[in-house]
Amino acid sequence: MVIKLNVWNNYFKKINSNSKSLILTRIIKSMKHTKFTTLVALFLGLTLVFASCKKEDTLAPTLTLKGSNPGSVLLGGSYTDPGATATDEEDGDLTSKIKVTGTVNTNAVGTYTLTYSVVDAAGNSTTVTRTVNVTVNRDTYLGNYTTSEDCPQPYGLNSSPTISAGNAANEIVVSLYYFNGGSLLLNVDGSNVTVAANQNPAPVGDHVAGTGTLSADGRSITMNMTMTPQVGQAVSCTVTWTK
User: Fold this and answer.
1) C or N: which end of the chain has fewer Cβ atoms within 10 Å?
2) Which CATH class is domain 62-135?
């Protein structure tokens, strides 16, 4: 062993300093390369392990409506959709991905539906709906009208009545109901109209009852009327007042 070491020492002494430096550099690089390769292999292995352990995304996004549901707007008004927000456990904020279908026609009384939907990167989807009611109030009814009717004589109705506000919040008054005068009190509930109780418009004095509806565009009222005279048989007819 001593002889071998002496031989190695003698050989190493014969090598100049530059060669010694080169040998040491190669040894160090070899060691560094081995460490780097080991680290890369370890990193790739851990990546594969975590990838295989990752759960499949089956959770749908959360979609939240802003504003009221149901919403409402007066006939002839302007409706602005308050919108919605969406978040996902994996993808984060998905609000910009929300799609909205449906329209609200504010020129027609009715109930409308807006549908909101969003899909995350894994294909999970969520859908919610908002109901919007286009409604009327008493002011919708007020104005000047023309009359069309099929009432038999002598029940001649005024061809150009005026409807004004009554004393109560749900009351309207048809002025000049008959051709020669008299007023008729009506109760309104949304688009539904009912002749108020105990209506005997002067000067004729007939008892009048009936129900009707406001048209979707708010421009006409159609009533099914029953008029009972003080003497004689009751008669029924249809009356339409149009702005």
Assistant:
1) N
2) mainly beta
